[in-house]
Predict the structure of GST N-terminal domain-containing protein.
Amino acid sequence: MTSIDNVSRSVALHDSEIVSGPSTHVRNTFSTANSNGQVQIHIAIASSIIALGNIPIILKVGELCIKLLLRESPTQFLALLHSNMSRHPRSVPSIILYDIPGHSPQPWAPNIWRIRFVLNFKRLRYRTVWVELPDIEATLRSIGAPPSSYHSDGRPVYTLPVIVDPTRSSTAPTVLSNPNNIAEYLESLYPARPIYPEGSRALQILFVHYIQEVFAKPLLTIMVPLSYRGLTQRGQSFAHPSTHSLPPGPERERAWMLVKEQFDFLASVLDKNVGDGDGVCAMGHHVSYADFALCSVLIWIESMAALDGWSRVREWNGGRWLRLKDRCKDYMDVC
């Protein structure tokens, strides 16, 4: 990738950040500059904007001008950009996402994937911290994470995902657990590129509850033992013995048939969207939080049961689930 491509990509990656804009004068001047080769004018304007020390402002006040500069005078623009960045060094804090490692370098845990989808979709800066299963409770206590739930006797339960968001305050970062709570927080604090299109929040929450409490239940008989096998050796040593045993062949086949019943039912519901989309996405034309919750389960199946599970699921219901996974693939980066 060329240095020009890197600059273009760097600018594009910031287009959803919430920034304070430049003065009205600069904004109006920028928008009225024409595209007939007035490079020096464009450079003068870009210099004023870049000097503010906040690169995302460039996109906020006019993508046309930045593209023109990169095309017609890339050397001058790169020099300008680098010199101003060196005068205005800034270290943007990243959201931290805590995840569980496995044998594979690729993430697998569905609840954590759900939040990774949201972070990627919103184009938020984040990084992953890997925590072995035996270390989860101690690690989360040490960072002040709230319990994700409680046992019947009142003892706290610490599970992942957890995020730490230092972007508002590096000395008092926000620490959250529970995927639905995290999703609500990210939607509230970073409303650009919403995961809940207007008027859909209640329906999506109901959809996600169904995925968690009904749809995924038949999968547990198969997927929990397979997930145990996918853990690191240290993680396996900490797992509960009841998670070890995979059902024998005929019993496992019956379990997959119960799983298929849930997929068939969900397909019949999503078919109601035909005419308002292609029946792939829960909300019609565009992916949303509900799709991320379902696609996270698909990734779990593919990661832990590629031959016995995903090879079936991808063919069910006319390939609908493979199409959903393809629809979400742009948001599968692991940072």
